[in-house]
């Protein structure tokens, strides 16, 4: 390969070391367009960047690649306490759609951030219907009311809503008024 073919990728890799986080973010995003081992290794290293925004962009970009190291890194991102990291890891896993996706995204079900839950619901469309329904039902039992409400408000695809019996049980057990309102709205829209 000529210098001209390699220069842009090398420029992006060099950009990952810039002192400005915006430059490192742009470089991580750009490297997602390359399919080289150098790009993968550089992105894997940047996941440890001091800026969660840079690290998150590296996770999103890793979603264009495969391999054991990439999957391990994305799975670790799903277990992060930082919502930005979890969202980026879920995005990367959604792009890859690896075998065993359900088990990889399950740790995010325990996250306290409702936006993470919404992303789990979005990613669940890649799962087999029975696995997706089981995951979505688990969200109705989440320890944080904001997550239970986000799940009740979420429009699940493919008719993956809980049965009337299960929904009635969750409604009778729910003590938070905003979650009850969302569950009532869900029940009013008709469930299977």
Features:
192 residues
Written account of the structure:
It is a single chain. By secondary structure, the protein is mainly alpha-helical. 66% of the residues lie in helices and 0% in strands. It has twelve helices and no strands. Helix 11 (164-173) runs antiparallel to helix 12. The longest helix is centred in the middle third of the chain and has 14 residues, at 83-96. It is elongated. The model has no long low-confidence stretch (mean pLDDT 86).
Q: Helical region count?
A: 12
The level of helicity is: 55-70%
The rounded distance between the terminal residues' Cα atoms is 58 Å
Reported for the largest beta sheet, the result is: none
Q: Tell me the fraction of residues in β-strands, as a range.
A: under 5%
Low-confidence stretches: none
Helix-strand pattern: HHHHHHHHHHHH
Give the mean pLDDT. Answer: 86
């Amino acid at each position: 390969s000529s210098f001209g073919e390699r220069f842009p990728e090398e420029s992006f890799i060099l950009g990952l070391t810039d002192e400005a986080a915006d430059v490192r973010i742009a470089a991580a995003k750009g490297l997602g367009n390359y399919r080289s081992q150098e790009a993968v290794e550089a992105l894997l290293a940047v996941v440890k960047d001091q800026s969660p925004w840079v690290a998150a962009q590296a996770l999103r970009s890793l979603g264009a690649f495969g391999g054991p190291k990439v999957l391990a890194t994305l799975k670790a991102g799903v277990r992060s306490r930082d919502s930005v990291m979890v969202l980026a890891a879920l995005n990367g896993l959604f792009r890859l759609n690896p075998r065993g996706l359900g088990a990889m995204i399950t740790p995010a079900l325990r996250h306290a951030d409702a936006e993470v839950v919404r992303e789990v619901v979005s990613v669940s469309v890649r799962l087999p219907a029975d696995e997706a329904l089981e995951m979505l039902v688990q969200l109705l039992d989440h320890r944080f009311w904001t997550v239970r409400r986000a799940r009740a408000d979420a429009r699940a695809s493919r008719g993956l809503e809980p049965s009337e019996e299960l929904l009635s049980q969750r409604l009778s057990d729910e003590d938070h008024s905003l979650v009850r309102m969302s569950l009532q709205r869900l029940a009013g829209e008709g469930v299977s």
